[in-house]
Amino acid sequence: APKQATLGKFFGNL
Amino acid sequence: MLEARLEQANLLKKVVDAIKDLVQDCNFDCNDSGIALQAMDNSHVALVSMMLKSESFSPFRCDRNIALGINLGSLTKVLRCAQNEDILTLKAEDAPDVVNLVFESAETDRISEYDIKLMDIDQEHLGIPETEYAATITMPSAEFQRICRDLSALSESVSIECSKEGVKFNCQGDIGSGSIHLRSHTNVDKPELNVEIDLTEPVSLTFSLKYLVNFCKASGLSNQVKLCLSNEVPLLVEYALSNNSYLRFYLAPKIGD
After folding, report:
1. Which B positions 3-22 lie with beta carbon below 8 A of chain A?
2. What is the DSSP letter of B16?
3. Smallest Cα distance from A11 to chain B, Å
4. Burial (0-12, 13-18, 19+ Cβ within 10 Å), A13
5. pLDDT (tens digit per residue) in B207-240
6. Which residues face B135 on adjacent strands?
7. Which one is predicted more confidently, B124 or B5?
8. Torsion angles phi and psi, residue B118, rounded to 5
9. CA nearest to B230, candidates B253, B197, B257
């Protein structure tokens, strides 16, 4: 089954 | 100092109600452009981004940047003390210990006033890149809510496939499978029922229904919801409010096998 990604993978820390 | 007067307490009540199960302690960042909030859920899978523009308030005054660290559970308790139609005024000093909420009834001379103690919240702020989404679906918010609720009875995940045929919400679970197919639809008499699909390339993504059902608590804020998708990037779910204010949710996809 596909795995849940987290947002950190896509959005950078400011 | 901050002084922001909302014509109807209902707006803030609905916004807080829509996000309080997703995020608990948040900074309300106030400056001269309005009141903004950005917060991730504990699992870092979903993000709430709210913007209440200064134009949504009358009057709105905020001389310098103020971060109001508020526990949404506490805010909910106080907002329950307001009637939906009450005029709501938020007030805070420049380096505040509390935020002050005043509820005024337009019909009676009742004025109630509450202070909520503020918290120091060290919040991780994420930079959300400007994205040209491959597919944008605008649809009735109640329809999206129904789809998410119906499919969540069967499965934990939904795949959203958007092609020139329309948009298909698919799920597979232990008891069986389900799918809902929507095409572009224009209702001249009831534009709030329109479905608009704007597609530059086909998209197929899988998301957790638990989060989507949670986002749909915002359905009462807007007749229509906008879903923005590109392959392998987080989904954007947007509820537009008056005066360019908005409530947005981002949800990371489920990826790979």
Report:
1. none
2. H
3. 5
4. exposed
5. 999 999 999 999 999 999 999 999 989 999 999 9
6. B199, B229
7. B5
8. -90, 160
9. B253
